[in-house]
Amino acid sequence: MITMEKFLAIDAGGTSTRAVVVDASGTCLGYGRSGVGNPISSGIEAALASLEDAATQAVEASRKGAVSLSGAAVAMAGASVQIHGHLFHERFITLGLDGNTVIESDLLAGYYSGTFHTNGYALMAGTGAVGARIKDGALDAVSDGAGWLLGDDGSGFWLGREVVHAAVAALDGRGAPTALTALLLDSLDIAWDPKNRIDGRVAAQQALMKAAYALRPVELSRFAPLAFAPAADAVAQDILARAAGHLARTLAAVADPGVQGPLVFGGSVLTKGGAVGAAVLDAVSGAFGAGGGPAQAVLVEDGMVGAAVMALRAAGITVDAAVHERITGTLSTLR
Amino acid sequence: MITMEKFLAIDAGGTSTRAVVVDASGTCLGYGRSGVGNPISSGIEAALASLEDAATQAVEASRKGAVSLSGAAVAMAGASVQIHGHLFHERFITLGLDGNTVIESDLLAGYYSGTFHTNGYALMAGTGAVGARIKDGALDAVSDGAGWLLGDDGSGFWLGREVVHAAVAALDGRGAPTALTALLLDSLDIAWDPKNRIDGRVAAQQALMKAAYALRPVELSRFAPLAFAPAADAVAQDILARAAGHLARTLAAVADPGVQGPLVFGGSVLTKGGAVGAAVLDAVSGAFGAGGGPAQAVLVEDGMVGAAVMALRAAGITVDAAVHERITGTLSTLR
Description:
The structure is a homodimer.
Chain A: E1 6-12, E2 17-23, E3 28-34, H1 39-42, H2 44-62, E4 69-76, H3 81-93, E5 97-105, H4 106-112, E6 120-125, E7 129-135, E8 138-144, H5 147-150, H6 156-171, H7 179-187, E9 197-198, E10 201-202, H8 203-213, H9 234-252, E11 263-266, H10 268-271, H11 274-284, E12 298-300, H12 304-314, H13 321-334
Parallel strand pairs in A: 1-4, 4-5, 6-11, 11-12
Antiparallel strand pairs in A: 1-2, 2-3, 6-7, 7-8, 9-10
Helix pairs in contact in A: 2-3, 4-12, 6-7, 6-8, 6-9, 9-11
């Protein structure tokens, strides 16, 4: 009996890390999951521990006798990951790796989670927001992804910050009254008596500001779901419409009539916030030239499938529609 | 010869701290200046040192024989200053204070720097932005001042962040081309070659993001002056127009036809950014009722005059137009 080569693929994120052992046919054999795997946000030691944890789970789940891994691919955000690649590689050797470790962009992993095509587009809107054009298998153009302070327009952070901003403005009369105020104050257990002022300032506003500044800025993304809650609220609808407008501009900025291919949507703002995704598709149809661009988007949960695609491709294995489908299908039974 | 009672007044700010010794007639006798005096942004020890430094300078400049101080007033931002009031008081005792120390809002100090009237309005737009209605000498309503993350709309931080955001968006094609991009990149010594991309991202954009995230967020306010630089630039003009719109809403939110009085403008966005202040006045005229509201604003440099006003009033001394003029006039000869 011939044993097929096996590979380790890891999707390391700012919230959680996922790992899979996949064989050369695209069959996923074991899956693992752990905590924060981004060395920039959590430090290299914590990231190493998360990657090792998820990888160990995946290897143990796939073990029937000793496992030898012929290669590894790690998908990860951030420009400085190259610096640490050898550290990941060393940890994987103890797990049975007998081959190379490649570090790839999580943006590319998100794209390849939706398709095997090497030309196309990705738009991701989770905590951050970023658009990409993929050409010949590489990132050809990237837009936004500028982080919470300078960009990520239309992202989960952006939505959460707009929700808090709208409530703060409504509380002192600068902004229109909105159902978001009560939703937000309730979620933070802040009592609201418009007559209660301290040094001229509405007390509930002061308490809201205190609660919000106690968070790290990016944690404002936890309030993003509130924007989808009050369907009849003009302020909430305006926030969602502006988010869609921003995301459409981010995608349109990378659209090139010369590059035709699928469009992949990732991140909860697009995959769970149905109306936003639809509005983005409507708004961008003209940007892709006379052909009209993609009429629909493939929704992806994360970059796990794409990391497996890249692990196989790094070993020279062709990933076509059948292999891509096998990765997706066998992975879904494991998690 | 009767020696008039003397008072210590301090305007403690997030950038610098100013102190003056003023007598009961409103004549300023000595002035001092030091560093950061805000205990929230710089810690209580640093703030205490700054206040003592400025106060010592003011006392020594005014000394003709021993100085006895009958009272002290400190104008300061932030809600937690009450906690530390006794610490300031103890330091002033060693400088000759034989009376009470009162801690007052820097917003009120800014307002009283422009007028002796106890009813009126203040709009401040420095690094932050805040509006206030003053009634019977106290803060009756406050709008915005919600800080860089949640508000301060139209402030120096807001302008600086919009400048960087516009340049970042222009660099990847999401935003319109703008003269701000070259101005900003030049100010940071970043070379700009549109063809130079790394992993699909314009290299100059990556460098700009790195430079901006190396700053504390509020330090983005240093880029605010760039918004005023390119007169014919549509993106810059749009930023200034939106800033004025935000500041007008902040002022309109506290406008009350039942409270008539002067309007005081403080902070460099309003006192040095001429067009913004004029646009705010235009936009708010309807908010003050049939009377039309203030046709012009008194511009103030900081809260120093107002701190002196509050030091005298805390001692029961009447501050009328003549006393206010004397404080303003004698202070201007000292600094």
